[in-house]
UniProtKB/TrEMBL annotation:
Any Pfam family: Pribosyltran
Catalytic activity field: IMP + diphosphate = hypoxanthine + 5-phospho-alpha-D-ribose 1-diphosphate; GMP + diphosphate = guanine + 5-phospho-alpha-D-ribose 1-diphosphate
Name of the protein in question: Hypoxanthine-guanine phosphoribosyltransferase
Organism per entry: Psychrobacter aestuarii
Keywords: Glycosyltransferase, Transferase
UniProt keyword annotation of Transferase present: yes
Key word Cell membrane present: no
Phosphoribosyltransferase domain segment(s): 26-154
Family annotation (CDD domains): PRTases_typeI (cd06223)
Upper taxonomic lineage: Bacteria, Pseudomonadati, Pseudomonadota, Gammaproteobacteria, Moraxellales
Amino acid sequence: MTQISNQEIEKTLRNSECLISSIEVAAAYERLAAQLNLSYAGLNPIVMVVMNGGLIPAGQLLTQLTFYHRMHYIHASRYRDNQGTNELNWKFKPDVSIEGEHVLLIDDIFDEGITLKAVVEELSKEKPLSINSCVLLNKIHDRKVPDFNVDFVGIEVDDRYVYGCGMDFHGYLRHLPGIYAIKEDKL
Ligand SMILES: O=P(O)(O)OC[C@H]1O[C@H](OP(=O)(O)OP(=O)(O)O)[C@H](O)[C@@H]1O
Ligand code: HPA
């Protein structure tokens, strides 16, 4: 990923508005953790972080989990091929057996749903006992993939390109503790 100068990044930050504050995000993590703790009590699942974006939400959630679990990760990215079709590019497939296991995927955002749907379809071939997904954000629009839904959602977000809390702006700004977007008049 190409480097962007610090000045350009600072300009992006000046042109950004906060859509969801770090306080609201922290409250969403608490709510999500409480739901997961109820759903997974005693189930001893494998928690799979969907890299890169899932890293920060997973880190924030894991310390609040009260059920015993093992943590692994997968690395998959969406890309549009030259036919305009959405494909999933597997960069790292799980190197553990998930057969007969409860699996919980954690990602940052459910946008069109291409990534999580494809990941769930692929991992389901290995016959896990259950496979569910959890995201910090669900983006509200009517372009979702058919026949798939995410199971645990922290916050609904407007249909804008967002960054922070794991989500990037040209590879940067994943570390921001709130959710940001470019101001409408600066687009
Ligand atoms: O619901 P979708 O429309 O599939 O979009 C959501 C996915 O897109 C982003 O990943 P991306 O492929 O950009 O890679 P990243 O995690 O490295 O940012 C994000 O982290 C989700 O995994
Ligand atoms: O709004 C978004 N921001 C960052 N990454 C994303 N991947 C899908 N949608 C988004």
